[in-house]
Write a structure and sequence with these properties.
- This protein is of the alpha+beta class and 508 residues long.
- It has 18 helices and 14 strands.
- The structure holds protoporphyrin IX containing FE.
- Protoporphyrin IX containing FE binds at residues 104, 120-121, 132, 287-288, 291-292, 295-296, 299, 352-353, 356, 431-433, 437, 439-441, 444-445.
- Residues 1-46, 473-508 are annotated as: Disordered.
- Its cofactor is heme.
- GO terms for molecular function: heme binding; iron ion binding; monooxygenase activity; oxidoreductase activity, acting on paired donors, with incorporation or reduction of molecular oxygen.
- It comes from Halorubrum trapanicum.
């Protein structure tokens, strides 16, 4: 496609800077198109639509639909008209060029509204814009770099708790790790005092949204034991956050969101500047805690598992991080292209967010098809990341695909996920969404995944125990069972040294 991508430092909108790209004319904005056809609508059952296929294997359903019927295809869920969009150019139009013709819509609000309220994740229009502007400084490069210490410290602690030969469930370990990092980044030094309240709420949220429990499909007000616990713990969390906010105000919070030491400080300063009221402030604290917890935990789980399963590439990453002066600092990550490739490839093969939704607020033309207003559009990183039109051997973990080995050694962009785009459209890879509403925590998450992986691999070698990873579509892309690896003390230099260095990368 011959397009290049540059991304700005402030990270507010990575995708609007794309150069003009000669996209398929059928995907251009065409209010006056001569009546394009509706997308294909391969049949489902009357009334139920495609519910059965979705409930039994949503990820496989998305993949098969996209492969068989193309980039925009209809499906139905209990009479709700839905379209799976997997054409990268159509995705770019929805998220970037024409983003103002779409909203997140009713589906995410119905599922998550009780938890996330009117915070950044669910807000729409001017309300969203104001919140995003007020909060974005917390995710500027310099600010995110400040969270490097907790990211490394907690990884060091986890690695120190494992002995040579231990079998570890990396999903459980990564879930604890991501929680600790996020809680500390959100609450700073207040975290010790409030850890139990926050952890109890996090556990209840996971339980409430676990799609393996039938009761998860009941609304939160139905008084099942799980729901009662969930409501009680969420109320306790919100009240704790309110108390902390009051304490910070009493102690004189910074007046400028950019000067705060942690995420809560940014939110308090933004509220004091009038960008949001106190209810929104609490909604946003809860939003960060939950939008950034399971997603990062899954990203780390899949990175560690995939590296355990690819010993030669793991060795390459270990050599890279062993060459650092000590445990990594955020600035060191620029020198770690193989590490970066390892993480970005894990997010390709197992994107933690397998799909997300938009609704057009007016009739639109997508991929040459007419799509009515108000329907559900499902954008699926899972299906697009596994499309063999964009990816060779798409179901294989192959981080080498991100590396360009030049005279100066391997290079891989530090700043944005993905390689220099060239041979594939930009939206063939979008684990963090795109356009103005891309993940505000993207830089935080990519730094966290790399610092944690580097810290672990400077001490330990990972061997796979689970040999056949299987995943399922819950709210996110969850493993179907424990993800076990065996940890080994880092090998003597002889094992990791020149002999290993000569072994071809990729050949196991
Ligand atoms: C590997 C980790 C992560 C992945 C894969 C991920 C993925 C995503 C995706 C796909 C979206 C866009 C959803 C949409 O457009 O409907 C999103 C939005 C968002 N993410 Fe993340 N995320 C990650 C980590 C984080 C972290 C660490 C935080 C916070 C500290 C965070 C906070 C948010 C918020 C607040 C939004 C909504 C932004 C807005 O609408 O303006 N995420 N994320």
């Amino acid at each position: 496609m011959g397009q290049t991508t540059t991304r700005s430092d402030d990270d507010s909108n990575p995708s609007t800077e794309r150069t003009a790209d000669g996209a398929d004319p059928s995907t251009k904005r065409t209010a006056d198109d001569a009546d394009p056809p509706r997308p294909p609508a391969p049949g489902g059952l009357p009334l139920l639509g495609n519910v059965y296929e979705l409930a039994s294997d949503a990820l496989g359903f998305y993949e098969r639909r996209a492969a068989t019927h193309g980039g925009v295809v209809r499906y139905d869920v209990f009479g709700t008209e839905s379209y799976l969009v997997t054409d990268p150019e159509a995705i770019r139009r929805i998220l970037v060029d024409d983003h103002d013709r779409y909203e997140k819509g009713a589906m995410p609000r119905d599922q998550l509204g009780g938890l996330l309220g009117d915070g950044l994740f669910l807000a729409e229009g001017d309300d969203w814009r104001e919140q995003r502007t007020a909060i974005r400084s917390a995710f500027f490069r310099e600010q995110v770099a400040e969270y490097g210490d907790p990211m490394v410290d907690h990884a060091r602690r986890a690695a120190a708790s494992w002995d040579d030969g231990d079998v570890v469930d990396v999903h459980a370990a990564a879930t604890d790790y991501a929680f600790d990092v996020l809680a500390e980044s959100l609450l700073g030094s207040d975290v010790e005092r409030e850890r139990e309240t926050v952890r109890a709420a996090a556990e209840s949220v996971t339980e409430r949204f676990d799609t393996r429990r039938l009761t998860s499909f009941l609304p939160a007000w139905v008084p099942t034991p799980t729901n009662r616990r969930y409501r009680r713990r969420l109320a306790a969390l919100r009240s704790t956050i309110r108390d902390l906010v009051a304490e910070r105000r009493a102690a004189g919070a910074p007046a400028n969101p950019g000067e705060a030491d942690d995420l809560l400080g940014t939110l308090v300063a933004a509220a004091d500047l009038g960008a949001m009221d106190d209810d929104r402030l609490v909604d946003n604290a809860v939003t960060f805690l939950f939008a950034g917890h399971e997603t990062s935990a899954l990203g780390l789980t899949y990175t560690l598992y995939c590296l355990a399963d690819r010993p030669a590439f793991q060795r390459r990453v270990r050599r890279e991080v062993a060459a650092l002066d000590g445990d990594p600092a955020p600035a060191d990550l620029r020198e770690c292209p193989a590490l970066t490739a390892a993480v970005d490839e894990a997010l390709r093969l197992y994107p933690p967010v397998h799909s997300f939704f938009r609704e057009p607020t007016e009739p639109v033309t997508l991929g040459g098809h007419r799509v009515p207003a108000g329907v559900v559009l499902t954008l699926s990183p899972w299906a697009v990341h596994r499309d063999d039109r964009w990816w060779d051997d798409p179901t294989t973990y192959r981080p080498e695909r991100w590396l360009r080995d030049g005279a100066a050694g391997a290079v891989h962009g530090d700043d944005a996920p993905g390689p220099a785009v060239g041979e594939r459209p930009e939206y063939a890879y979008f684990p963090f969404g795109g356009g103005p509403r891309h993940c505000i925590g993207m830089r935080f998450a990519r730094q966290e995944l790399r610092l944690a992986t580097a810290t672990v691999l400077r001490r330990l070698r990972l061997e796979p125990v689970t040999t056949d990873l299987s995943v399922r579509a819950s709210a996110n892309t969850r493993p179907a069972g424990p993800v076990r690896v065996r940890v080994r003390d880092r090998p003597a230099e002889a094992d990791d040294g020149p002999a290993a260095a000569r072994s071809p990368v990729g050949g196991e």
